[in-house]
Amino acid sequence: MASYRPRIGITAWRRPLRTPLGEKTDLYTLGVEYAGAVQAAGGLALILPHGDEPEAALDAIDGLLLSGGGDLDPRSYGASNTSAKDERLDADRWEIALVHAARARQLPVLGICRGMQVLAVVHGGRLDQEIAGRPGHPDMEPMSADEILGARHDVAIAPDSTLGRIYGGTERQVNTIHHQAVADAGGLAVTATGPGGMIEAVEARDQSCVLGVQWHPEKLPPEEAAAERPLFDHLITRARDYAARRRTHGA
């Protein structure tokens, strides 16, 4: 099994975009960096469209990567909409169902940005709908793409956490590509914080592989990307272990 390439399902963002077929062509989209990071770590990337059969989707994969995308609909965590953008309640319902089913199977899960927020909501947490202008998190509205991708802030990682062991340290600089944040992690442990105590990473309190980061490790330039590789290596290792257990038990 050491050479086995575990299958990692990656959630996609459904949105209307201009194409030769129309001004608002209904598309599933995903930044190529997600698949690239999975493949570089030794996994096989599979894009998951929205559906209504989470169990069938999970039957096909060994690990789940919840990608970034539009904001969660505040109704998904019992709130009113004050500043959420590009929200899709159907996407929330699908990803929430996936996480519940994955947890029941002990399937490895990594959440990035929106993905971490989904994990928090599944575990009873809630979101802060607007953080622009807070320490380390500038208002992205007037910024260019290069300025957004180049912005950095410090995070402190709990030394006794899975995340701390993955990175082998307690401090790092990360990018800042979000205008919402987890305000309450619910039943998850908070394992990294940014300026002002902003929640930057969460993980399961038991020994299961459920972990989320608010930053985008896949979007860092090559000179910084190597430092984020252990996060994806961890997902692939745990997914390979999951696949081996499934083969052993004939599932």
How much is the average pLDDT?
A: 95
Taking pLDDT < 50 over at least 5 consecutive residues as the criterion, the unreliable ranges are none
How many strand units?
13
Largest sheet features: 9 strands, mixed
Helices and strands: which structural class? Answer: alpha/beta
The spatial strand order of the largest sheet comes to 4-1-5-6-13-12-11-8-9
Shape-level CATH architecture? 3-Layer(aba) Sandwich
Number of domains: 1
List keywords for this structure.
two-stranded antiparallel sheet, 251 residues, 26% strand, alpha/beta, Rossmann fold, single chain, nine-stranded mixed β-sheet
Provide structural commentary.
The protein has 251 residues and is of the alpha/beta class. It has one domain (7-129, 180-249): Class I glutamine amidotransferase (GATase) domain (Rossmann fold), CATH 3.40.50. 31% of the residues lie in helices and 26% in strands. The protein has eight helices and 13 strands. The protein has helices at 32-40, 54-59, 89-105, 114-122, 145-150, 162-167, 222-225, 229-249, and strands at 7-11, 13-19, 22-29, 44-48, 63-66, 109-112, 126-128, 152-157, 171-175, 181-184, 189-193, 199-203, 210-213. The chain has a nine-stranded mixed β-sheet with strand order 4-1-5-6-13-12-11-8-9, sandwiched between helices. The two termini are 16 Å apart. The model has no long low-confidence stretch (mean pLDDT 95).
List the helices and strands and how they pair.
Blueprint: E1 7-11, E2 13-19, E3 22-29, H1 32-40, E4 44-48, H2 54-59, E5 63-66, H3 89-105, E6 109-112, H4 114-122, E7 126-128, H5 145-150, E8 152-157, H6 162-167, E9 171-175, E10 181-184, E11 189-193, E12 199-203, E13 210-213, H7 222-225, H8 229-249
Parallel strand pairs: 1-4, 1-5, 5-6, 6-13
Antiparallel strand pairs: 2-3, 7-10, 8-9, 8-11, 11-12, 12-13
